[in-house]
């Protein structure tokens, strides 16, 4: 099991449903201005945002590096694959990367990812993503939490140092014989300054909005257009 598959397995215990829905509303509102017909959702999760956009008449494709997530999307009738963005064919009116997707990439990975995104955009296409602010990492994400239900117990321990957030997930899952299976892994997220996005060769940052998701100004929404000069 990869660390992203462990995250997928534990996601329902994290209490992020309200925050996720708020992000979906924000992205949907921003996309209303562009009258898009096709959309690529990178890090699509279980497909909640695609379901919204499909209901608006948009043709959607999702990709996620967790096979658990991609499988659940397909089980719900959505077009999804467990592949990297570099493996996606075709071009889209819009590409989105919702809920910290960019923060899972280090600096070099980020630059390659953004180039790959630009190649999947139509000439007038838009790319929208969100990142955590420094405050969002150091004051909101850092810390320890636990959650449980009748069959599962989850502990999350997050430490922010050297502009990286190390989040250890420990999940105990009760089996039919009342014994527990333990799953444990660590996910690293990287803090990115806004200036990292201001002089990209293939994408132009046209708008940025710092907003409050969990706490005061803990996230920034980034909106890019494809460079065609």
Describe the structure.
This protein has helices at 3-10, 17-31, 48-55, 67-75, 107-119, 134-141, and strands at residues 38-42, 59-63, 80-81, 92-97, 121-132, 143-148, 152-161, 164-174, 180-190, 203-211, 219-226. It is an alpha/beta fold. The protein has two domains: 3-132 and 193-226, Rossmann fold; 136-190, N-terminal domain of TfIIb. The strands form two sheets. The protein has a seven-stranded mixed β-sheet, sandwiched between helices. Strands 6-7-8-9 form a four-stranded antiparallel β-sheet. The mean pLDDT is 96.
Question: Any key phrases for this structure?
Answer:
11 strands, alpha/beta, single chain, 229 residues, seven-stranded mixed sheet, Rossmann fold, N-terminal domain of TfIIb, 2 domains, four-stranded antiparallel sheet
Strand segment tally: 11
- Write down the Rg: 18 Å
Low-confidence stretches: none
CATH class descriptor name of the largest domain: Alpha Beta
SSE topology string: HHEHEHEEHEHEEEEEE
Helix content: 25-40%
How many separate domains make up the residues?
2
Do you know the CATH topology of the largest domain?
Rossmann fold
Distinct helical segment count: 6
In terms of DSSP E residues, the strand content is 35-45%
CATH superfamily of the largest domain: Vaccinia Virus protein VP39
Q: Summarize the main sheet.
A: 7 strands, mixed
Termini gap? 43 Å
How does the overall form come out from the CA principal axes? globular
What do the pLDDT scores average to? 96
The CATH architecture of the largest domain comes to 3-Layer(aba) Sandwich
Structural class: alpha/beta
Strand order of the largest sheet: 3-2-1-4-5-11-10
